[in-house]
Amino acid sequence: MAVRRVIPNVFDAEPGATRDFYARVFELDVAMDMGWIATLASPGNPTAQLSVFAHDAEPGRNPFVSIEVDDVDAAHARAVELGHEVVYSLRDEDWGVRRFMLRDPAGRVVNVLSHPS
Fold it and tell me: If 0-12 CB within 10 Å is exposed, 13-18 middle and 19+ buried, where does residue 1 land?
């Protein structure tokens, strides 16, 4: 399993204003905007990204970081094998990603995902 990118996640009651702030100040492109989540990317380095979530986008989960891997099933199996708490089961989402979420030792939620090939 290889990590493709690591994306910090920001939660905000006004995600549109926060999205616009980062887009305008840092000249980031809006790579995806689903209303409850917007992902911004650097035009010159598309793996340099930031996601902005609405506060209630992931109730009870609120991932502080998203990590894209080339094999999410292998990452899930490894997390389970190592005994980590999975807080969102492995699944295919309607918007085209396969993902799960787990807690790190400090209690933070990590969103782990792959885009199907």
Answer: middle
Distance in angstroms (rounded) separating the CA atoms of residues 3 and 69? 4
- 34's tokens: 């689903």
Token code pair at residue 73: 């099933």
CA–CA distance, 66 with 44 (Å, rounded to integer): 21
The H or E element spanning position 90 is: strand 86-92
The CATH architecture assigned to 3-114 reads Roll (3.10)
Radius of gyration over every alpha carbon of the chain, rounded to an integer in angstroms:
14
- State pLDDT tens for residues 81-103: 999 999 999 999 998 999 999 99
